[in-house]
Write a structure and sequence with these properties.
By secondary structure, this protein is of the alpha+beta class. It has a domain at 23-48 and 85-199. It has helices at residues 3-14, 21-84, 107-125, 159-162, 168-177; strands at residues 89-94, 135-139, 146-153, 191-199. α2 (21-84) crosses α5. The protein binds heme C. Heme C is lined by residues 57, 61, 66, 69-70, 73-74, 77, 93, 95, 98-100, 103, 152, 154-155, 157-158, 160-162, 183, 192-193.
Length: 202
């Protein structure tokens, strides 16, 4: 190798290949734009799933009581999530204590749930409102793969099916459909779970 070429190569190596700096910055800008789009799309999916579930749940409770609500939730949760799981997206819910074992978290989801739970505990201790939305994401700019989670807090209407005082008749229906149910005993404002989404370019 020519001495100058070798020196130039060494120089580029030591300077972090400055020759590529410009294109790198441009593509980083573009990626961060893509990242923002993915976050917006994830939030839109969360809204669709959350609203869809709530509407179906409220309607079923109104006409058939909480027991009907349990059955509706079982019937509706999967299909609503499936409808949204298109074009590379996977949309669902998870928790550290699941009712449906199919919703069990993987390692990354478990870590984010622990992080959310820590933030909620901290906010509770200091009597502050937790950050809203309480969410987190990871984006791989190489592969374009994206994951997103948004915390779900236990609200008043959730107590009837996820609280510590679930009516025995409701409990019976829950146990019938979910013999390994872990999703009771939550207090108001606890981390009940999270929406969890992933995207893989197709
Ligand atoms: C009428 C009973 C009922 C009510 C009220 C209810 N849920 Fe559930 N919830 C269920 C059932 C049944 C499932 C399991 C659905 C499935 O099979 O995926 C479930 C599952 C979930 C899951 C998915 C993780 C898991 O445990 O499998 C989350 C998160 C959740 N509920 C949050 C809430 C929140 C938040 C509220 C209040 C806004 C609420 N639920 C109100 C019955 C209920």
């Amino acid at each position: 190798m020519n001495k100058y070429v070798a020196l130039l190569a060494l120089g580029l190596l030591l300077s972090g290949c400055n020759i590529y700096e410009k294109p790198q910055i441009n593509s980083a800008d573009k990626k961060s734009g893509e990242e923002q789009i993915k976050v917006q799309q994830a939030k839109a999916h969360v809204k669709a799933l959350g609203t869809g579930l709530k509407t179906r749940l409220q309607q079923a409770i109104k006409t058939g009581g909480l027991e009907a609500g349990v059955e509706e939730c079982q019937l509706a949760a999967g299909p609503i999530a499936d409808t949204l799981s298109q074009d590379g997206w996977q949309v669902g819910r998870t928790s550290l204590k699941v009712r449906n074992p199919n919703n069990a978290p993987d390692v990354w989801e478990r870590e984010q749930l622990a992080y959310f739970s820590g933030l909620l505990d901290k906010a509770k201790l200091s009597n502050e409102q937790p950050r809203k939305p309480l969410d987190t994401y990871q984006y791989d700019s190489e592969s374009g793969e994206f994951r997103y989670m948004m915390a779900i807090e236990q609200g008043q209407i959730c107590m009837a099916c996820h609280g510590s005082n679930v009516d025995p008749a409701v409990k019976e229906v829950i146990t019938k459909h979910y013999p390994n149910d872990e999703a009771t005993g939550f207090n108001l404002g606890d981390l009940r779970g999270a929406f969890t989404l992933s995207y893989k370019p197709q």
